[in-house]
Amino acid sequence: MIPFLYYINRIGLHLYSCMIRSCLGHTGNGVLFHRIRSLDGAQRISVDNYTSFGLQVRLSTWKEGTIKIGKHCHFGDYNNITAVEGIVIGDNLLTGSNVLISDNSHGELTEEDCLIPPIERDLISKGEVVIGNNVWLGNNVCILSGVHIGDGAIIGANSVVTHDVPAMSVACGVPAKVIKEVRS
Questions:
Q1: How far apart are CA 140 and CA 133, in angstroms?
Q2: What is the pTM of this model?
Q3: What is the pLDDT of residues 137-170, one digit of tens each?
Q4: What whole-number distance in Å separates Cα of residue 29 and Cα of residue 37?
Q5: How many CB atoms lie within 10 A of CB 177?
Q6: Residue 72 backbone zone (phi > 0: left; psi -120 to 50: alpha; other: beta)
Q7: Which terminus of the chain has a smaller tally of CB atoms within 10 A, N or C?
Q8: CA gyration radius for the chain?
């Protein structure tokens, strides 16, 4: 009985993924979605081959923002990826749950903006987010606007990344700081 239910579940997953893929600007082969929470600006999102998304993931582009995701990436449950400028993610990214990757925020810290409800403020960006190949983001990591993360980097759980992280390094904390680098 269990193998039968397994196959029914897999068929449903593939049918659901086909429906979501048809909304996106570009998708490669074997891209899987496990019940997406929201999808905004889908035509400006591209996902390469064999990338998978966990439960309740949010993908959003606003204004002219774009999201480009490489191949063989695995996004955990409850991730939120949002762009007003651009987010570029390399190949083989692995994320834990509850990860935020955002190139934007609601307004600036000015007196005028503070008098406006946050939801009504203009979305602003300090620059695109670029994440290299073979990067690992732990649970509850926040990657904020203008950050570049180099190839092979590891970001520890519960970290907030506000500055660039070099390749082949481990960063953690709030704000994240490099605690170890691999030297060849």
A1: 20
A2: 0.92
A3: 999 999 999 999 999 999 999 999 999 999 999 9
A4: 22
A5: 13
A6: left
A7: C
A8: 17
Residue 81: name the closest of 142, 148, 157 by CA. Answer: 142
Asked if residue 46 lies in contact with residue 68, where contact means CB atoms within 8 angstroms, the answer is: yes
Which amino acid, residue 88? Answer: V
The DSSP string of 99-136 is -EEES-EES-SSHHHHTS-GGGSPEE-SS-EEE-TT-E
Residues 82, 87: Cα–Cα separation, whole Å = 8
Assigned token pair, 134:
């073979």
Residues annotated as catalytic (active site), given as ranges? 106
**Nearest residue to 98 via CA among 67, 75, 119, 82:** 75
151 in Cβ contact with 133 (< 8 Å): yes
Give 116's contacts (C-beta < 8 A, 6+ positions apart).
107
